[in-house]
Amino acid sequence: MTELVWQPDVLGDGYEQLTLDLGPDPDGEGDAAAVLVRRTTVAEVVEGAVLYVHGFSDYFFQTELADFFAERGQAFFALDLRKCGRARSAGQTAHYASDLEHYDAELEQALALISSAHPGAPVIVVAHSTGGLITPLWLDRRRRAGRVAPVVGLVLNSPWFDLQGKPVMRGPFTQALRVLARVQPLRDLDLSDTVYGNSLHISGSGEWDYDVALKPLAGFPVTVGWLNAVRRGHARLHRGLDVGVPSLVLRSDKTHYSREHTDASDRSDTVLDVRQVARWAGCLGGRTTVVPIPDARHDVFLSLAEPRRLAYETVDAWLASCVAHPA
Question: Where does the record place the Serine aminopeptidase S33 domain (predicted)?
């Protein structure tokens, strides 16, 4: 059996990374890999484990989130998906996948490694934005295959449950995506916007220092083929899933779209329509708790101090009621 070789991570002391070999990329961009990151300091008695999955134009850097779970006896792991963050190789299209099911490979590998490191530990999956769409689809497939364990809970942070915009526009746009994806899957839709990035990063009005090469302020280009895969994922979600475990859905209490940064940009979701998150949360199946966090940003755990505190308190209460003592 090949010995696992964990390497120092870009986050510095207290974090290590492991490259997961995924073989040839199904979309023809060389060999695919993902990167699993772990917080090396764990509690003397491990109560469980967390697997964190990022969103689009993102990677794991949220050490405050890792600290929060570690303080509650949870061994913390985060996954940079194929072609994302630490896992992207030269020549690969950032965050591109023609089918969200491709991500099952690294999610399964990561889960197996966590279970090997902490046998019998219950696992909570935490995911943000597009990760909040990818992971419920994966868990639904696991549940249908009779493989729910060791996952015992799902925390979704502003999950992307539908395409923004008016319903009358979403249908024709989705149909056009299906056609274009066959012939121009890597075509850039030019949807870049720096408002959200500037609200987060220390170079703008934010307090967070992260690598803008891995998480650009304007985001990576959105490609036709990737967005088509997302829309197929949306359609599957809307037909109804059963992730097999209790779910907590966190979102902002309001959306604010603007091409310029204002005070409202720091107290709203500037990326998704929070009404859509609320509408489709019931499609996860099972016991689902939806909590709007007043004045939260798109990533509620990167919000201003007060909404961020409320988000962590909400997770704390949910862990105690839904996971520690499930119905």
Answer: 47-254
- Of the pLDDT bands very low, low, confident and very high (cuts 50, 70, 90), residue 323 is low
Kindly report each contact of residues 182-189 with a partner whose C-beta sits within 8 Å and lies 24 or more positions away, as own/partner. 184/224, 185/27, 185/98, 185/223, 185/224, 185/225, 185/226, 185/228, 186/93, 186/96, 186/223, 186/224, 186/225, 187/223, 187/224, 188/221, 188/222, 188/223, 189/221, 189/222, 189/223, 189/224, 189/227
Q: Measured between alpha carbons, how far is 14 from 27 in angstroms, rounded to an integer? A: 35
Name residues whose C-beta falls within 8 Å of residue 132's C-beta, 6 or more positions apart in sequence. 55, 156, 157, 158, 159, 160, 161
pTM beyond 0.85, yes or no = yes
pLDDT band at 326, cuts 50/70/90? low
Residues 114-138, mean pLDDT to the nearest whole number: 97
Cα-Cα-Cα-Cα dihedral of 11, 17, 22, 25, to 10°? 20
* DSSP states of 113-162: HHHHHSTT--EEEEEETTHHHHHHHHHHHHHHTT--TTEEEEEEES---S
Query: 7-162+227-323 — its CATH code?
Result: 3.40.50.1820
